[in-house]
Amino acid sequence: MRPSDSHEVSQLNELKIDVGALVVGAHYATAGVIVMVEQMPIFGGYAGGLEETTIVDVATTLNSFVMLQATWHLDGPVHVRWGITTTREALAVAGHAARAIEENTHLILGNQYYTLAGPCTVMCLLETAAQAITDTVSGREILSGVASGKGVVTDLFTAMEARFMGEVAHAVAGMDLHEVNILLDKLVSLYEKDYKTAPEGKTFQECYDVKKLVPTEEYIQVYDEAVKIMTDLGLTYWND
Description:
single chain; alpha/beta; TIM Barrel; 8 helices; globular; Monomethylamine:corrinoid methyltransferase; methyltransferase activity; methyltransferase
């Protein structure tokens, strides 16, 4: 790896760290590399509810810069029941924590994406959109996604989810916060009722022509359907 590449070290839940991470952190500091410190506070876990998890998220973020000399922090509040970052509660934690830090510091913040639904599904793209909106309006500089299907299945992700993440971020940049909150409420309502029946989606090999590295016609149609939903919700990015 090059010194300019992000070198990861992770904290533990909640507000804990192990000796191994301290050793790795010391090595990174001595080597003078780019340090990315990762942590995923758990909503509904040891921290508790929305307010408590948000406080822990802020503290964890600040601690990464103090204890491990982070160049930037990779967040990812996750729901204890669903194991994803796109639930209403996880989004609220991520949004409030980032907003508080961005209002008072110049620290570089990122967020990682774990959807419940898999690739080539509208639900996956809508989940991705909700988090991209939250991260953008709360001031995060880096969007890190997408780990579809909770990020636990080999090859269950594609570049199409990342593309949608980026396009939605561009679409909401500069929007009024009140309007964004109304949009988010409508958007999350479209998929949160389907948590128990979330589609598994398809693997990269099923979503792409692996020789030409282009998405299948099926995924393009799914993508267009998600774009239409976002357009109907009031985003005009795809009409420009």
